[in-house]
Write a structure and sequence with these properties.
The chain is an alpha/beta fold. The chain has two domains: about 5-125 and about 245-315, 3-Layer(aba) Sandwich (D-Maltodextrin-Binding Protein, domain 2), CATH 3.40.190; about 130-215, 3-Layer(aba) Sandwich (D-Maltodextrin-Binding Protein, domain 2). The protein is built from eleven helices and twelve strands. The protein has helices at about 15, 45-60, 75-80, 100-105, 140-145, 160-175, 185-195, 205-210, 260-275, 275-285, 295-315; strands spanning about 5, 30-35, 65-70, 90-95, 115-125, 130, 155, 180, 200, 215, 245-255, 285-290. The protein starts with a strand and ends in a 5-residue tail after the last helix.
């Protein structure tokens, strides 16, 4: 298991602080840890780093990223669950650790103890394929997969993660047979697709390599077209509505954290997330921002969790 702490400079913190945070407050009085439950260099990590920087500027205390990858995010979630509920340790990742994994295996933490604090990025992704395979469009992918069942290998950041669920949604909707290969993070998946060990992936970390022509983007798993790939259609446009299966990143704390800390943290996330500077930083990580208040993100998580659990049941997903 690899671990890496990332410290962000606090230079200019008071100047850059949003207006809502300029008043004195007790929290935070020391560095805050953001545990990313995947390896460095993956989609979650790329979204987390600009947030660590801007939160450090806003609060005048360091927000430290600690990567604890492995087991589809379970290792990182366990580390957060064991930390004191004092407002100084959070999970920054997808909902996999608190929604998918607890229904697939026994986990060493109480998933219901996690509460969402902020929605910090919606990944702009799609199915990317290595050019050596041949298909250049989504229709050509389906034709190839039907003629070569089981020949394509799809790499994901772990079983029951958002990329894996998107693959299962695609298989259910189209009837194609594609092999799933789980990794410990999106960075490892990316390395193997570039090396030709797997042929497909669906992670925003692939974006630079798509632009460089090393991978081919066949569609968008998103609710609309985006400026970065204006010519790439959504799955709805391609005739498969309802299986776009977007991925989003959130910050989660523990239920024992005082409400006033959660509200203060959320207010900062909303205010920072509305700034053009932060929107541009997240866009560079191939994601968009949809800032939400505490009640809004709680409702969103509940609805998204229902969809996720329905997919797991329909696809009969098992830990591999």
């Amino acid at each position: 298991m690899r671990r890496r702490a990332f410290l962000v400079s606090t230079a200019g913190a008071l100047v850059a602080a949003p207006s809502i945070l300029r008043a004195q407050a007790k929290w935070p009085e020391r560095p805050v840890k953001l545990v990313v439950p995947f390896a460095p260099g993956g989609s979650t990590d790329l979204v987390a780093r600009p947030w660590a920087e801007k939160l450090t500027e806003a609060f005048g205390q360091q927000f430290i990223i600690e990567n604890r990858g492995g087991a589809s995010g379970m290792i990182g979630a366990e580390a957060v669950a064991k930390a004191p509920a004092d407002g100084y340790t959070y999970l920054l990742g997808t909902s996999t650790s608190i929604v998918s994994l607890p229904v697939l295996r026994k986990v060493a933490y109480d998933a219901s103890a996690f509460v969402p604090v902020g929605r910090v990025g919606d990944a702009v992704t799609g199915f990317a394929i290595h050019p050596s395979v041949g298909p250049k469009t989504f229709a050509e992918l389906l034709d190839y997969a039907r003629k070569n069942p089981g020949k394509l290998a799809f790499g994901s950041s772990g079983t029951a993660t958002a990329p894996h669920l998107r693959l299962e949604m695609l298989k259910l909707a189209t009837g194609i047979d594609i092999l799933h290969i789980p990794y410990r993070g999106g960075a490892d998946t990316l390395n193997d697709i570039l090396a030709g060990a797997v042929q497909m992936m669906c992670e925003s970390s692939s974006t630079p390599h798509i632009r460089a022509g090393k991978l081919t983007l066949l569609n968008l798993n998103y609710n609309r077209r985006v400026d970065m790939f204006p010519g790439v259609p959504t799955l709805t446009e391609l005739g498969y509505p309802g299986i776009d299966g977007g991925s989003w990143f959130g910050i989660y704390g523990l239920s024992g954290i005082p409400r006033e800390i959660l509200e203060r943290f959320n207010a900062a996330l909303v205010e920072i997330g509305r700034t053009p500077v932060m929107q541009a930083r997240i866009a560079a990580a191939s994601a968009t921002l949809t800032p939400q208040t505490l009640p809004e993100i709680a409702a969103f998580l509940a609805e998204d969790s229902k969809v996720t659990l329905d997919i797991i049941k329909a696809a009969n997903i098992k830990l591999e």
